[in-house]
Amino acid sequence: GMLEKKDGSIINMASVASSIKGAPNRCLYGSTKAAILGLTRAVAADYVSEGIRCNALCPGTILTPSIEQRMHDSGDYEKSRKEFLARQPIGRFASAEEVTGILIHLASDDSKFTTGTFQIVDGGWSL
User: Fold this and answer.
1) What's the pLDDT tens digit per position in 27-78?
2) Which of 29, 34, 39, 51 is catalytic?
3) Are the beta carbons of 54 and 116 closer than 8 angstroms?
4) Of the chain's two ends, which shows fewer C-beta atoms within 10 Å, N or C?
C-alpha cells in the first residue's frame, strides 16, 4: 500500500456548495462536505512525512444524472435549471470531463509537492 511504498495520492471529493460558498437549504450536505475538507487537511498533515499526499476537489455544479434528477424532482424542471445556472457566473454547467484534468494532475507525479489543498473548479461560483 501507500505506507509501504512511502508514496501515494488521496483525492477527496468535496464541493463548493456550503463548504466554500454558502448555499441555502444545503445544511446537511454542506456540513458533510466541510467535514471532508477538515479530513483532507488532517490526513495531509498526518501523512506528509510518509510521502502520501491528500487533496480535495471542490467542484461547482456539474451536469450529472444526479443533478438532472434533482431538477426533474423539483416539480418545475425549467425553473430549477435556471436557478442552478444563475449561480454559475460562467453561464453554464460543467461537464464531468472538465474536472478530470485536475484529478489526473493530483493523482500523478506532477503534483508531488501538492498536499492539503482544496482545488476549486466551479466556473466562478465562489468568487
Assistant:
1) 898 899 999 999 999 999 999 999 999 999 999 999 999 999 999 999 999 9
2) 29
3) yes
4) N
